[in-house]
Amino acid sequence: MKRSIFIFVFAATAAALLSAQTEKLDYAALGRIRDEGLNRSQVMDHISWLSDVYGPRLTGSPAIQQASEWAMKKFAEWGLTSAHQEKWAFGKGWSLVRFSANLVEPQVQPLIGYPHEWSSGTKGDVTADVVRVQIASEADFAKYHGTLAGKIVLVQPVRAVRMLEGPIILKMTDADLAEAETTPIPAAPGGRGGGRDVGDALRTLAFRQKLQDFYVAEGVVALFDRGSDSDMAAGGSDLSWQQQHTDGGTIFPTGAGARGATAGTAVPGVTLAVEHYNRMVRVLDKGMPVKVELDIETRFYDETDKNGFNTIAEIAGGDLASEVVMLGAHFDSHPYGTGATDNGAGSAAMMEAMRILKAVGVKPRRTIRIALWGGEEQGLLGSRAYVQEHFGDPQTMQLTPEHAKLAAYFNSDNGSGRVRGVWLQGNLAVRPIFEAWIAPLRDLGVTTLGPRSVVSTDHVSFDNVGLPGFQFMVDRLEYNARTHHSNMDVYDRVQRDDMVQQATVIAVFAYNAAMRDEKLPRKALPPPQPRGRGASDQ
Known about the structure:
Elements: H1 2-22, H2 27-39, H3 43-53, H4 62-78, E1 81-88, E2 93-105, E3 109-110, E4 113-115, E5 126-132, H5 141-144, E6 152-154, H6 174-180, H7 198-218, E7 222-225, E8 232-233, E9 243-244, E10 269-272, H8 274-285, E11 291-301, E12 308-315, E13 320-330, H9 340-359, E14 366-373, H10 381-390, E15 392-393, E16 398-399, E17 406-411, E18 419-423, H11 431-438, E19 448-450, H12 459-463, E20 469-474, H13 479-483, H14 496-515
Parallel strand pairs: 5-6, 6-7, 7-10, 13-14, 13-17, 17-20, 18-19
Antiparallel strand pairs: 1-12, 2-3, 2-11, 4-10, 5-11, 8-9, 12-14, 15-16, 18-20
């Protein structure tokens, strides 16, 4: 066994050395990029502007428009060209104007919570009795008919809150990195029972809509929930990690109102901190009254034909200027925090990579283009719209002339950890190329190329039409445990040194892709595929 491991390691090292010899790298330029990126980084200032000043950046809100205008101004200052917005249809915009919630009986307590996205408001400050409602079937509606007018409804039971245990901060160990270099065999779709029955899914959606309509008809003031039934965060799109949610005032809101024609017509919805929610359920179980003072004011923005947008700019290329290397990250966020780690961090890293390249005066052969996507949180909407407009439609696989001109797309969207490598998206032909690229970055911790295809963020839009799109492999840190889609997604949870490294590594990859003689290898074109949601649920 030891001899086999030695042979494998020797072969891998030999392959890396061979690829390093065949890939022509401009080490002088890479040295300048590293010096600028590591010693004069501005990445944290970018994140502060995006989160402290303009966050949160919900698609369709004034804040994301302001953030885009700020980004385009920075691009112009740095000398990027063609800074503009490319628009696409989204739906009604929404923003929170005011929210307060206070328990007033049995004792006074300010409540930690956040309204659902696209929630309606309460039409002023109201004080209402709180009741627990359990409607699980058609037979349950009659029990509550005529009893809920003017009430705030708790829609879930108590969830136990465990002491923190297990991994909370995730930095990839040697074992994790070794596992990342494998391709696990996926389980059969749907497990032993096969795929989920479409009829069951439709019936579930119909029942949920009937329940919402019932609450409206009964005159319910608001619906309170305490988030997911599980206190475990999903492992994400790359490794099988799981992290315990930190709770303790950190909330992970669930649900969203409609953003189409019926926007604003449902009962207001609020997710509370689980500890505050549980208290109210326990008091009600004792037969004691619970009252809450609640004020929710929200604002909707009229839908236009194209009120979603992506923010685009570029560094012009030289002899291969018609070919393009793209850097991208989703610019939008959920409204609960300020969108610092999801995904102000990725957006700022891409912006900083572009700033670095301009600051050191490199002359890329290919055009390097940055795209800051809108609507990722609602289903990769911005990147899907861009890909369909510029490269091809995955439903029909009818491709545009630009499809042949894209050299590579690189994405960042897993928080503020340092880059440990790249997910190859099943494109094994790029392995020897990336082996050469990461060789000068190993001292920064970039060591690993994972062969598997990962999902749930914007590189998938490119991969779906056969373009070489890649997601950087990063340390998750607190991303799943504390900040992902929570009220704690704020600047103070971003790790400076890791972000400095991340932006520098991205700049190196962009420059290498822009300078090599050939575009990156591609996989075979996929067959036409039905449109899936493809949402970001990492």
